[in-house]
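#data-curation
PF: Archiving a pair of folding outputs for the training set. Convention for this channel: one message per protein, sequence first, structure tokens after, nothing in between. First:
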Amino acid sequence: MKDRLTRRSLLGKLGALAAGLAALPALKTAKAAVQKVLVSSNAPKGYDPTQHKWVMAIDINQCIGCGSCVEACKKENKVPQGPYFRTWVERYVIEKPKPGSGEARGKTHVDSPDGGMRGYPATPVPKEDILHSFFVPKLCNLCEHSPCVQVCPVGATFDAPDGAVLIDPKYCIGCGFCIQACPYGCRFLNPVTHVAEKCSLCYHRITRGLQPACVEVCPTQSRIFSDLKNPVPNDPIQAFYAKHRVTALKPHLGTDPRVLYAGADREVQ
């Protein structure tokens, strides 16, 4: 029995080695693309990603749940119709605690019908029983230690030097590993192209000095976007950090997101 298990273990290792060797050409090719910083990103030729550091902050208290950001993102990035979103808005409704429960807060209800793009139905919680309600925009968290990057078998998902986490569709094989690995539910498999997709910060826009579409259309300026390496006079991101206590989603995971939130209750995940 011991010999048979040893042989089986050896065969398994040989099989893994063969699979690794078979994937090596694709991996080398993908790494070459990474070094060029997403050759298919449509970034201008003069753009130097080492000279930028993009960040986004979101003020939950300012978001009114209008869904303009979701609709703009869909149109700008040609996101397929249906339940596919690069950004979406969740509604949180927190009930008052039941009398005598000893709790400070009651049950939390979260919904995001159609990504929050076309409004929300009446909440099932009567108005008099609501402790707090608010809206939370969601998108790729731009993790400094990205689980999606770690699991991609061909290097199609990678960290750009400017802080963006990007996908090169030329090398993505549609395996879905990154979708499963993302702890924030920010990725989906495009039903048309059959490759992984997510928020790219509108990379084709920001590399040309424009704002992401979601930031540009926000009527309350609840999304703040900036370049830490190239601050401007009265930089909104620095003012935001100075004024608010900011937090990241799911900090216990150690992903170190670069999308930070102000006004996020503990129920927001």
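PF: Second:
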Amino acid sequence: MLLKREGHVLLKRGEEVVAVRYVFGRFTRAAHWIRFAILIWLVVSGFYIAYPFLGRDFLTPTAFKFVQTYIRASHVLLGWVLIALTLVRIYEFLFVRSDGRLGLGDELRMGRVLFDRQAWREQIAYYVFLRKAHPVHVYSNYGPLQYLTYIALYLLILGISVTGILLAAPYQPEGLAGTLAGVLKPLEIWMGGLAQVRIWHHWFMWGIILFSVLHVYMVVWNSIRARTLLLEAMVSGYKAVEKP
């Protein structure tokens, strides 16, 4: 149950009362879970495209052997959706303030945490159990390691998107993929051709898989150890107020 008192929002859970603040809006939460579902299917369908193990029965009529085509089509379609969501998220990062107005994005301004030596020391000390209290940075919602990791994630998504467009272009020569592939042709040549582009595409995928596993682990670990309600925040939008 949520109660408002003295400018704070209090979450009452049985006998426990926790001060919380609203940190994730509805769009942010919805986009997060949509991206999560899309990435799962892209990984699963990507593995199948690389190794199509269905529909190999020669006695089955040809009309029922288009499994690869359907899976590839869904893979490409959801890839475009992921690209659109990623571009919106990058725009929000760069140009949207916390009050919803346009300007220098609040998250972009938080980037100075990357150059804060004390923030690095506190976060590393917390992760190696040399510090009990969770570090709090009054000017940033993220610690330096978290901020750097998120930047790496979006670079991976941009990489897998660009290589995905190059790989889709031969099947959509007159569509958007074909048009963009013409612009990205020097990058394809630099990578060594489509065969090497596919390998890069797979490496980007493994990077995203690794990030996802570590991300889930760290969110759960922090929620339990620091009692920040970080895991619940991506559902309710409310996170526990951390004291410096």
